[in-house]
């Protein structure tokens, strides 16, 4: 088993006033040569956005973008649909940028901060037709069991959102002292696990809130929650850039 630890306080941090951004991987002006990607996972940003503020219209291409709101209301608009679309905690949003999209993201609340994860995954295909989708996932469906959020178009899971990469994004909520054994898709995959909240042991390592660990070259690994914990898994092919 190969592991790489990323403690919460080792992430890049940018304070833009209206935006407090934590970068697990090199992003914008923050560059760390040893933190450019984990396999096909290119970006994991942990953002807090002030009320009524956000990202104006900007372009993306050839990237699979997943957004997971944790608190507040995200509003999204793009050149595929000119109407603002709300995305709230419990929902997940995916966008295949493909040949190119223009979109805007704002905090849809006038008085509450917005907290979210934004994830970029390198696609297995270039120049696909842009697309957008979102879906609700119930919290009770991840109590002590893996809840799959996103999979490949080639995956037979009919309840997940789809992207152009052989990846799997999932969540689990563990009770105090509960254990779980995570099984990887294949020997060519690795999984980047972030502790959304709580504290867990992975093999002989302890991870606290917003700590992350990349695990590869293994078929499975065990997790034990100390207090109640919420976990995010991003499993991707271990490609090289």
TrEMBL record:
CDD domains linked to this entry: cupin_Yhhw_N
InterPro entries (UniProt xref): Pirin, Pirin_N_dom, Quercetinase_C, RmlC-like_jellyroll, RmlC_Cupin_sf
Residues of the Quercetin 2,3-dioxygenase C-terminal cupin domain: 150-236
Superkingdom: Bacteria
Residue ranges constituting the Pirin N-terminal domain according to the UniProt record: 11-121
SUPFAM superfamilies for this protein: RmlC-like cupins (SSF51182)
One Pfam family, short name: Pirin
Listed Gene3D superfamilies: Jelly Rolls
Family listed: Belongs to the pirin family.
Name of the protein in its database record: Pirin family protein
Organism per entry: Winogradskyella pulchriflava
Lineage: Bacteria, Pseudomonadati, Bacteroidota, Flavobacteriia, Flavobacteriales
């Amino acid at each position: 088993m190969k592991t790489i630890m990323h403690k919460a306080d080792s992430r890049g941090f940018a304070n833009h006033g209206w935006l407090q951004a934590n970068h697990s991987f090199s992003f914008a002006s923050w560059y760390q040569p040893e933190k450019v990607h984990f396999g096909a996972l290119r970006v994991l940003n942990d953002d807090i956005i002030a009320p009524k503020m956000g990202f104006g219209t900007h372009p993306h291409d050839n990237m699979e973008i997943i957004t997971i709101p944790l608190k507040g209301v995200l509003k999204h608009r793009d050149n595929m649909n000119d109407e603002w679309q709300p995305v709230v905690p419990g929902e997940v949003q995916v966008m295949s940028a493909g040949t190119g999209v223009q979109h805007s993201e704002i905090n849809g609340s006038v008085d509450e901060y917005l907290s979210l994860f934004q994830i970029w995954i390198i696609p297995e295909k270039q120049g696909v037709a842009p697309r957008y989708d979102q879906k609700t996932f119930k919290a009770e469906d991840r109590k002590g069991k893996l809840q799959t959020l996103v999979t490949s178009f080639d995956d037979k899971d009919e309840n997940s959102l789809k992207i152009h990469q052989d990846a799997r994004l999932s969540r689990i909520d563990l009770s105090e002292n509960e254990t779980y054994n995570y099984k990887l898709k294949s020997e060519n995959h690795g999984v980047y696990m972030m502790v959304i909240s709580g504290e867990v042991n992975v093999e002989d390592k302890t991870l606290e809130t917003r700590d992350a660990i990349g695990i590869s070259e293994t078929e499975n690994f065990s997790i034990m929650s100390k207090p109640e914990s919420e976990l995010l898994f991003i499993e991707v092919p271990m490609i090289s850039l």
